[in-house]
């Protein structure tokens, strides 16, 4: 009997170790809602990475507008000099998912001219494991004095889902007021999205007066989404104006200071209609103007007609906390296995 339980304890230890290793992988969306772009602050990506712990097997997800950025893994020298001449690898399509397969320092830059020097670069240090695996405890041999067989201890199975079990909602009885029942919280909104105005054409004098109207027609905008205006500096600007000034192409009394330094990122902070024009002489009159209708609530999924190659970032994968929950389950199973080995 003792031998059988000893074998069971060893098996549980091996299973726990396997769970520990497998659950250590996590997925990180680089820059979170900022995505992979020329950042507003040159230290944005180093600040983002400083709060994370990366281990072998983790995945970095780079969200960017395809054709406007890329992701190149380079040497430390290439990272310091912003040179992608001999990259280790290059990803051109968004979202780019890069698995960290080895311990040590990994360096990533955008190869587009000026982007790396503007702060679009990321360096991460990868550990072999998240934390030391549980150490196996020696199992006593047959010479140990027998002890009375204890009651069977139930062995918890690792959770199939990293999310906690739903809390039971009390149902009011005859003597309980219905108003005291717990109301479930609403489903979470989708993650904010970044739309590159005009896609690859950017913000410029269009070839057709209805170009920006057509661009916005098949998109759904929600509060929290971001419009990114890309243009050549000193040749265009962006002004948010009233409906009246939009119709007559007037930049008088703009709703916010006129933006002149690209890329201009404007967060849609309230529901309703928003109107944007270029105030350079004649530009609005030939079609450099954009009107969008913003919905107040979020959505459970991105708009069905939106081209994902022009969005940044996409809906984020499960957060790293899911991996932490699995690690905790594996550690509990390991402790139980050790306890069984000591008893038997």
UniProtKB/TrEMBL annotation:
Composition-biased stretches (Pro residues): 135-175
UniProt cross-references to PANTHER family, sorted A to Z: BLUE COPPER PROTEIN (PTHR33021), PHYTOCYANIN DOMAIN-CONTAINING PROTEIN (PTHR33021:SF488)
GO molecular function ontology, one term from the record: electron transfer activity
Location of region: Disordered: 133-190, 296-323
SUPFAM superfamilies linked to this entry: Cupredoxins
N-terminal signal peptide: 1-25
Residue span, Phytocyanin domain: 26-128, 193-296
Gene Ontology CC annotations of this record: plasma membrane
Pfam family, any one: Cu_bind_like
Superkingdom to which the source organism belongs: Eukaryota
Protein name per its UniProtKB record: Blue copper protein-like
């Amino acid at each position: 009997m003792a031998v059988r339980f000893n074998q069971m304890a060893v098996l549980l230890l091996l299973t726990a170790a396997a769970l520990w290793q497998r659950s250590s992988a996590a997925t990180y969306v680089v820059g979170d809602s900022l995505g992979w772009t020329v950042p507003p602050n040159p230290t944005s990506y180093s600040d983002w990475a400083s709060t994370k712990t990366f281990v072998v097997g983790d995945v970095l997800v780079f969200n960017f507008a395809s054709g406007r950025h890329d992701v190149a893994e380079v040497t430390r020298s290439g990272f310091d000099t912003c040179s992608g001449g001999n990259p280790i690898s290059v990803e051109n399509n968004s979202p780019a998912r890069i698995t960290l397969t080895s311990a040590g320092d990994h360096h990533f830059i955008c190869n587009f001219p000026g982007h790396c020097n503007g702060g679009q670069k990321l360096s991460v240090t990868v550990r072999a494991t998240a934390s030391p695996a549980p150490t196996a405890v020696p199992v006593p041999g047959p010479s140990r004095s027998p002890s009375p067989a204890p009651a069977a201890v139930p062995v918890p199975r690792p959770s199939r889902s990293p999310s906690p079990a739903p809390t039971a909602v009390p149902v009011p009885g005859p003597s309980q007021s219905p108003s005291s029942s717990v109301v479930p919280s609403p489903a979470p909104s989708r993650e904010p999205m970044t739309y590159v105005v005009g896609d690859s054409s950017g913000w410029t004098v269009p070839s057709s007066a209805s170009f920006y109207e057509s661009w916005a027609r098949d998109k759904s905008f929600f509060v929290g989404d971001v419009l990114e205006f890309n243009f050549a500096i000193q040749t265009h600007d962006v002004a948010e104006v009233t409906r009246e000034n939009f119709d007559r192409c007037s930049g008088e009394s703009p709703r916010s200071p006129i933006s002149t330094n690209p890329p201009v990122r404007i967060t849609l902070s309230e529901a309703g209609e928003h109107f944007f024009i270029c105030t350079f002489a004649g530009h609005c009159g030939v079609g450099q103007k954009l009107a969008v209708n913003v919905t107040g609530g979020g959505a459970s999924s991105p708009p069905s007609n939106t081209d994902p190659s022009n969005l940044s970032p996409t809906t984020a994968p499960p957060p790293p906390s899911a991996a932490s929950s699995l690690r905790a389950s594996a550690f509990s199973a390991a402790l139980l296995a050790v306890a069984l080995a000591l008893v038997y």
